[in-house]
Every structure is written in structure tokens, then in C-alpha cells.
Specification:
- The chain is mostly beta strands.
- The strands form 2 sheets. Strands 2, 4, 5, 6, 9, 10 and 11 form a 7-stranded mixed beta sheet that branches. Strands 1-3-8-7 form a 4-stranded antiparallel beta sheet, with no helix packed on it.
- β5 and β6 form a beta hairpin.
- The radius of gyration is 13 Å and the shape is globular.
- The model has no long low-confidence stretch (mean pLDDT 96).
């Protein structure tokens, strides 16, 4: 079982990025899938979730209205569309399903 994230990068304040997470050996249609992030020197912070019986994601207050999580069941992927990025969004972003974690993808937002 493996989760592979991609799509991170360096952007400027106000720009957008789209992160992807592909699942291998796990069906996202049957799992709760979540995004977390961890900034340097800080703990891991929950960002967004989609539960297996719902198409409606939930987002942390700090990103609500700017980030949107989408599940692509046909391709067994989830995406995190991040708009109006801020320097405080700088972190390593992780995809999670159950006790499986991806390797993380770095997002850096410069001011």
C-alpha cells in the first residue's frame, strides 16, 4: 500500500497550486482520505478530508474558502486545489488514508 503525492513547488503570494495524491493498493472510494501539512518547527496540521460515503470535503478553518479537496474515484486519486496562497501555507503536505502516509510534497509561498 502506497500513497504518492506530487504538485508542490515555489509560488508567490496569491498564486495557486494543485497537489495530487495517487493511491496504490488502497481504494480511495472505500477510505477516508485526508491532507495534512507540517511547517518547519511545527506539528502536523490537518488540512482537509473526504470520507468514503461523502463527496463533500471538509477543510480546516485556516484554508476554508481557499483550498478545495476533490476525489477522482476513476483514477484513484485525490487533489488539493490551493488558491490565494499565503506565506503561512508554506509546509510539507502529506496525503493520508488510514495508517498510510505519503512521502510529502513541499509547498513554499514567498511574499
Amino acid at each position: 500500500v502506497q500513497l504518492v503525492e506530487s504538485g508542490g513547488g515555489l509560488v508567490q503570494l496569491g498564486e495557486s497550486l494543485k497537489l495530487s495524491c495517487k493511491g496504490f493498493g488502497i481504494r480511495f472510494s472505500e477510505s477516508a482520505v485526508k491532507w495534512f501539512r507540517q511547517a518547519p518547527g511545527k506539528g502536523r496540521e490537518w488540512v482537509s478530508s473526504i470520507f468514503r460515503n461523502s463527496r463533500i470535503p471538509d477543510h480546516a478553518p485556516s484554508v476554508r474558502g481557499r483550498f478545495t479537496m476533490v476525489r477522482d474515484t476513476a483514477n484513484n486519486m485525490v487533489y488539493l486545489q490551493m488558491n490565494r496562497l499565503k506565506p503561512e501555507d508554506t509546509a510539507t503536505y502529506y496525503c493520508n488514508a488510514g495508517d498510510v502516509w505519503g512521502q510529502g510534497t513541499q509547498v513554499t509561498v514567498s511574499s
